[in-house]
Amino acid sequence: MMNIQEIESDKLEMAASMLKAIAHPMRIAILKHLEGGKKLTVTEIHELLGIEQSTTSHHLGILKDKGVLCSKREGKNTSYYLKHDILSQIVDCLQRCTCE
Amino acid sequence: MMNIQEIESDKLEMAASMLKAIAHPMRIAILKHLEGGKKLTVTEIHELLGIEQSTTSHHLGILKDKGVLCSKREGKNTSYYLKHDILSQIVDCLQRCTCE
DNA sequence: TTTACAAATGCAAATATATCAATATTTAGG
DNA sequence: CCTAAATATTGATATATTTGCATTTGTAAA
Question: What is the rounded distance in angstroms from the CA atom of residue A65 to the CA atom of residue A46?
Answer without folding.
Answer: 19
